[in-house]
Specification:
alpha/beta; 17% strand; globular
């Protein structure tokens, strides 16, 4: 009997793009569409799309990012997809972004960027 390839573990798509919490705007919709296409092209299954309103620099103070951490801690996802680094934390708070990327790596979870100029390197790096 031929062995079936193991399915890729699920991923979470994190979208933090809109500045107002009144529903998905153009930036969030673009990030979501781009992330879904990125996953589909690579045969990845999105377990959940988690959203936050952009503005709070510290990711752990955002409801959505806390949900991402919960999924990671529960072993429910192997990768986090995000459009670009500033969705995690702005340049002015790059140390917070580093803290979170290290936290993900320490939990065995890969962070991948879905924006085309960053996604090529995201495919190679672990």
């Amino acid at each position: 009997m031929p062995a079936h390839p193991e399915p890729e573990p699920p991923v979470v798509l994190y979208v933090c793009a809109d500045r107002a919490p009144v529903g998905p705007g153009a930036a969030a919709q673009c990030a979501r569409t781009e992330g879904q296409a990125f996953a589909e092209e690579r045969g990845l299954t999105i377990a959940e799309v988690v959203t936050d309103t952009y503005g709070e620099p510290d990711p752990v103070l955002r409801t959505g990012w806390r949900r991402v951490r919960q999924l990671v801690q529960g072993g429910r996802v192997a990768e986090v997809l995000v459009r670009w680094p500033c969705a995690i934390a702005p340049e002015s708070a790059h140390e917070l972004r580093r803290r979170e990327t290290v936290w993900l790596r320490d939990h065995g979870v890969r962070l991948r960027y879905t924006w085309a100029p960053l996604s090529a390197g995201s495919d190679d790096a672990r």
